Amino acid sequence: MGNGIAHVFAQYGFPVTMIDVSQDALDRGRSTIAKNVERQVKKGAIPADDQVKILSRIDLSMELEAAAGAALIIEAASEDSGLKYRIFTDLDRVAKPDAILATNTSSISITEIARRTSRPEKIIGMHFMNPVPVMKLVEIIRGLATSDETTKRVMDYALELQKTPVEVNDYPGFVSNRVLMPMINEAVYCLMEGVGKPEAIDQVMTLGMNHPMGPLALADLIGLDTCVAILEVLRDGLGDPKYRPCPLLKKYVAAGWLGRKSGRGFYTYSK
Questions:
Q1: Rg of the chain (C-alpha set)
Q2: What number of CA atoms fall less than 13 Å from residue 219's CA on the CB side?
Q3: 197-202, long-range: CB within 8 Å, 24+ apart, which pairs?
Q4: Is residue 127 annotated as part of the catalytic site, yes or no?
Q5: Range 79-87, long-range pairs (CB < 8 A, 24+ positions)
Q6: Cβ(63)–Cβ(19) below 8 Å
Q7: Counting runs of H as helices and runs of E as strands, what totals does the chain give?
Q8: N or C: which terminus of the chain carries fewer CB neighbours within 10 A?
Q9: For 9-34, what is the mean pLDDT?
Q10: Residue 55 has pLDDT above 90, yes or no
């Protein structure tokens, strides 16, 4: 998600710095962006001479201090609340006073994240959809203290990226995952109970319900560990056991079958 977000900002003329904990992660992110930009050129989505321009706008750093001059900082770390709290505490210290700190979280409370900072009015959710260069939606989530000014600025940023920003309020899973994750979870229950094989379950939803991707294939794309994390946030935040992750989903995660990123989930993928 991080490299996809960097890609679209650079594509639309913004200078971007990608920050990560290892040079290997940064190099892999930049390589992914280069491949995706090349694909856009081949499809005729962007002019060929834009390829060099886009990549030239992206810097890499392993130091959080590289964000010190940024107007907008978007966190796209793993869906782990403790990790996000630590990052925002550190970003609050590093960032300039008028900087907006946004999170790409798909389920964790914006209000809880904002509480770890001295600028809760400037904390907001900016939830991009995967793959970021293709998907048009950005879910804009206001925390309890998020200001109107912050919300407008972030909505304007999304429009500059040719995205469609949709404003929602801060509840577990927001709108996207509160609706999506129970469907994915129920599809895994169908698999566990022998109602159908993965291909059959996905074909029913793609051909019968006109979904562009079946729920099990989509879970593999999202990452099964991320699906479990979001379901647990829904279960704990809403206090309803109907959101508990299917035991088969948790078993796959325990086995390291995380979907596309590990090469195996409900389907098997070549590198």
A1: 19
A2: 36
A3: 198/266, 198/267
A4: yes
A5: 79/105, 79/106, 79/107, 79/108, 79/226, 79/229, 79/230, 79/233, 80/229, 81/108, 81/112, 81/233, 84/108, 84/113, 85/112, 85/113, 85/116
A6: yes
A7: 11, 7
A8: C
A9: 96
A10: yes
Return the structure tokens found at 22. Answer: 């290892």
Q: How far is Cα 177 from Cα 169, in angstroms, rounded to an integer?
A: 13
Amino acid found at 193: E
Name the catalytic one among 30, 119, 122, 127: 127
At 231, is the secondary structure helix, strand, or coil?
A: helix
Question: Do you know the residue count of the chain?
Answer: 271
Amino acid letter, 21: V
- pLDDT attached to residue 162: 97
How many angstroms separate the Cα of 42 from the Cα of each of 6, 34, 47, 132, 168? Answer: 20, 12, 9, 18, 36
248, 251, 252, 253: CA torsion to nearest 10: 130
The whole-number average pLDDT for the span 119-127 is 98
Tokens at 173, concatenated:
């899973």
